[in-house]
Specification:
heterodimer, A: 123 residues, mainly alpha, 5 helices, B: alpha+beta, eight-stranded mixed β-sheet
């Protein structure tokens, strides 16, 4: 085996090893799915019972003024929410508001009963 | 493989001319070219004569009379609703579409639904029934019955309701000697089959019938599966091996009688031809019979034999009889095997001979097997070392059992027991071999390019002296292949799209969802009965067709057979990561068995219910809208109503999967008014709707307001799905209906902005 051949073999071997490492890395990055309870039932609970008619703030359509009326949301956070909405899709459920930088689960807990993501118009 | 080995042992003088091999290759290339031109430019038609029966009809035509002759051994079987059926191939002479009889030609596959079992080979019949072109596969990847028949030159099928529509006409040529002889041979085969069943238990008798008489239909599914897994299925299809053993045995016996060589050879040729006809004359056996005849004739004429020329002559004769055979798996495998033995074995001089042969065959045909049967079984190399000698013994024992058994009953019992013992041993060995880890694995469909690369590589390695390949050269090639294998999936970017496939599984659901991030989810898998396992026959072939061999999430909406039936086979053959269900453990049609299977395979079980959210699919949101928790332990709620209901959102495209929900299920999710609105809906319960809850259903469809409504139902649906009220309701809301029995599989792809629909064989109706 000549020196050149050896070099080629070593190069190919290292390529293969790198490839294997990359594919393992990609596999480990793949997220497992989780089944998590959501606020979906709660969102629609009052429609089912048709009792409460509390005015909720729709975080998908509300403007900055409405958003700041929520406890713990100042103009900065309101702007962040609006910006998030512009860059991403609508919020599917109220808990998705935690995806906005600056809103943690504690803040969400304090506002979760006041916000909604759906236009409620029971037919 | 005895004579074959003898042939390859014989020295071929160097540089032997092989005109037949050249002719064979030219013929193959010619057929390939012609069929390519024909299918591309003439749509499979120029080589069919104008008065051919397939040109008489355009689509299914009822009330047709045809007249012809049975040219196959009729098959009689019973369906699971105890209907006795008969099926055979008919050579058609005349056809009456409306008023007049017209001369025609071609072959027709006939099925008589209520048969009285009295047709035999060579009968002339006049039949009345509905004539149609065989249906192409309804789902991508599924077995294509139409192509399968075309390889046998059959282009049309005739369905006959009952034996009353069949008249046996005057047998004008029943007394033609070949026909008469053949019908006698088939009668003999039937008699022997009955005799075997009389003396042996059903399962073993089925195997013996397959191995000795070529009656393959009697082998139970699970034992056939084990044979396939260990790569031993070739002994079930009568092949060169069987014929060679029989030739050898008779040669030996006649030798004991001191019959001169040439007479012996002639007698053996006659026996071989007789046996080949007896077994139904399938591709491998015809090939073997021709080759053994050539071999023996060469010995009589004292000519040198060249295996390539013998093989080529067999090939040329068979292709001239039916060129379409070239594309059938049996033909390719049979010729591939012999070619591999002849070509590869001599190059492995250092290896123990039987092992070398086994290895040669494996190297030669493994990619063809993988391509056609989606299985790679390295265990074959070892298995053959046991299986082939045992099969030899079995054939000898079986023949003795049959020959002596007709003389005396007590002898039959003794030889029957011996035969049984050998079969028992064979089955046990194969069973344990299949249990060895990594004995076999299933692979998704592979591309023809990969196969071509494989063969080029093998030829390079086998002729390394000729191509002046050093060891370094070989290792570089191997390393290059490995790199290609590792890097190609990393570099190739899969398109960022959501792909939803509603498979056609008759009355039942089977939905495959491929997510933009490469994950796969299966929602239900169709029904499973004794005669049709949608998991094995539809879902798995589709997954393999798509290059998928793992399912991340298998979801069963509820415990009805038409939804969960097929999943067991899927779990056995494809790697399922987790199993989602509503948590209700009904004891119905083996639902509990399925749950046990899931547990024994250590698949993660997840319960999902109303209000849950399934997270982890990049870009795709999944909400679970049903069933509510209180439905699950409530026996007054039907299992249909406790179906899992999923809402899937991928940017601008949304999909609602409803399982089989009826009134209560609908009422429960109606309150999710805003979430219900979807582009695509899998219509609940196959579109069935009872008038009792018509208003609920109307409200439900009004809220969902779909553009596309997919209904999963079978042709002549047993429950008459979809109901007219459902159709009315959906069309009132402006939805386009896609019913699986009309469209075949429905494939919807979405890039998030808009979606696109394709179907395998039809369009939706507004």
């Amino acid at each position: 085996m000549s020196r050149q051949e050896k070099l080629i073999i070593i190069f190919l071997l290292s390529c293969a090893v790198v490839g294997l490492a990359v594919s393992f890395y990609q596999k480990s990055q793949q997220s497992e799915i989780r089944v998590v309870p959501s606020s979906l039932i709660k969102e629609f609970a009052y429609l089912k019972n048709k009792t409460s008619h509390q005015k909720l703030i729709n975080i998908n359509t509300a403007d900055a003024g409405e958003l700041t009326s929520l406890p713990g949301i100042g103009p900065v956070l309101a702007e962040k929410i609006i910006q998030y909405r512009r860059e991403n899709d609508e919020f599917l459920l109220p808990e998705d508001i935690t995806k906005v930088l600056g809103i943690g689960s504690a803040k969400y807990q304090s506002i979760k009963d006041l916000i909604t993501t759906f236009k409620h118009d029971p037919r | 493989m005895t004579p074959v080995r003898n042939i390859s042992d014989k020295k071929i003088s160097n540089g032997a001319s092989r005109p037949l091999l050249a002719a064979f290759i030219c013929l193959i290339l010619g057929i390939l070219l012609v069929s390519f031109i024909d299918t591309t430019y003439f749509h499979n038609s120029i080589f069919i004569p104008a008065n051919h029966i397939s040109k008489k009809i355009e689509k299914t035509q009822d009330n047709v009379y045809i007249k012809g002759r049975i040219i196959s051994d009729p098959l009689f079987y019973e369906t699971h609703w105890k209907q006795k059926r008969a099926s055979f191939t008919l050579e058609v002479d005349y056809i009456k579409l409306k008023d007049n009889w017209a001369k025609t030609q071609g072959l027709c596959k006939v099925t008589i639904y209520k048969s009285d079992q009295k047709y035999v080979y060579g009968d002339n019949l006049i039949l009345f029934g509905s004539l149609s072109l065989p249906t192409p596969a309804a789902n991508p990847g599924e077995f294509n019955y139409s192509t399968y028949l075309k390889h046998q030159k059959i282009h049309v099928v005739l369905g006959v309701d009952s034996y009353k529509d069949v008249t046996i006409s005057q047998p004008e040529n029943k007394y033609r000697i070949p026909t008469l002889l053949k019908s006698k041979i088939f009668a003999l085969r039937k008699k022997v089959d009955e005799y075997i069943h009389l003396h042996l238990p059903k399962k073993e008798a089925g195997l013996i019938s397959a191995i000795i008489l070529g009656l393959r239909s009697e082998i139970p599914r699970d034992s056939r599966e084990v044979f396939i897994q260990t790569g031993s299925a070739h002994i079930l299809a009568i092949s060169g091996l069987h014929l060679a053993i029989i030739a050898y045995v008779f040669f030996f016996l006649l030798g004991l009688m001191r019959i001169p060589y040439n007479t012996r050879a002639l007698i053996v040729i006659i026996i071989i031809c007789f046996y080949a006809i007896l077994c139904g004359g399938r591709t491998p056996i015809t090939r073997a019979a021709i080759m053994i005849t050539i071999f023996l004739l060469a010995r009589i004429l004292n000519r040198e034999i060249d295996i390539y020329n013998a093989l080529s002559l067999a090939g040329i004769l068979m292709l001239l009889a039916n060129p379409a055979q070239l594309f059938s798996v049996g033909f390719i495998l049979s010729f591939g095997c012999v070619f591999s033995i002849a070509y590869i074995t001599p190059k492995m001089k250092k290896i123990y001979k039987p092992l070398a042969i086994s290895l040669a065959v494996y190297i030669g045909i493994a990619p063809i097997i993988a391509y056609n049967f989606n299985i790679i079984s390295p265990i074959t190399i070892v298995a053959n070392l046991f299986v082939i000698p045992l099969t030899g013994l079995l054939i000898c024992a079986g023949l003795t059992f049959i020959l002596f058994g007709f003389l005396s009953a007590s002898l039959a019992t003794i030889f029957g027991a011996t035969t049984w013992l050998i079969i028992f041993l064979l089955e046990k060995i194969i069973f344990y071999l299949s249990k060895i880890p990594y004995a076999y694995f299933y692979v998704p469909d592979i591309s023809l390019w990969l196969i071509a690369c494989y063969y080029i590589f093998i030829i390079l390695i086998l002729n390394k002296e000729k191509f002046k390949l050093s060891r370094a050269g070989i290792s570089i090639i191997i390393l290059l292949c490995i790199n290609l294998y590792i890097w190609s999936p990393l570099i190739r970017k899969s398109p960022e799209q959501l792909k939803i496939t509603f498979l056609h599984v008759g009355h039942g659901d089977a939905i495959v969802i491929q997510f933009p991030d490469g994950k796969t989810m299966l929602v239900d898998a169709g029904a499973k009965s004794k005669y049709k396992d949608n998991g094995r026959e539809v879902v798995i072939p589709y997954l393999w067709h798509e290059g998928i061999n793992k399912i991340d999430y298998a979801l069963i909406t509820h415990s009805d057979l038409d939804h969960f039936g097929g999943i067991a086979s899927v779990i056995k053959k494809v790697d399922v990561k987790s199993f989602l269900y509503n948590g209700r453990e009904d004891n119905e049609y083996g639902y509990l068995e399925l749950l046990n299977l899931v547990e024994s395979k250590e698949i993660k079980k997840l319960e999902i219910k109303e209000g849950d959210r399934i997270e982890g699919f990049k870009g795709v949101e999944i909400l679970v809208l049903g069933p509510p928790e209180e439905f699950l332990n409530n026996n007054s709620i039907s299992d249909n109503d406790s179906s899992v209901v999923l809402k899937l959102i991928y940017k601008n495209t949304s999909l609602l999967l409803c399982g089989d929900i009826a009134e209560k299920g609908m009422k429960n999710i109606i309150s999710y008014a805003n979430v219900l609105k979807s582009d695509i809906i899998k219509v609940p319960h196959h579109g069935l709707c009872v008038n009792k809850y018509k208003s609920t259903a109307e409200q439900f469809y009004y809220l969902v307001d779909p553009e596309i409504a997919v209904v999963t139902a079978s042709k002549n649906d047993p429950y008459l799905a979809p109901a007219t009220s459902t159709i009315e309701c959906l069309s009132k809301n402006g939805a386009t209906m896609y019913v699986t029995h009309k469209t075949g599989a429905i494939i919807i792809t979405s890039n998030g902005e808009d979606y696109h629909i394709t179907t395998t064989c039809g369009t939706g109706d507004v």
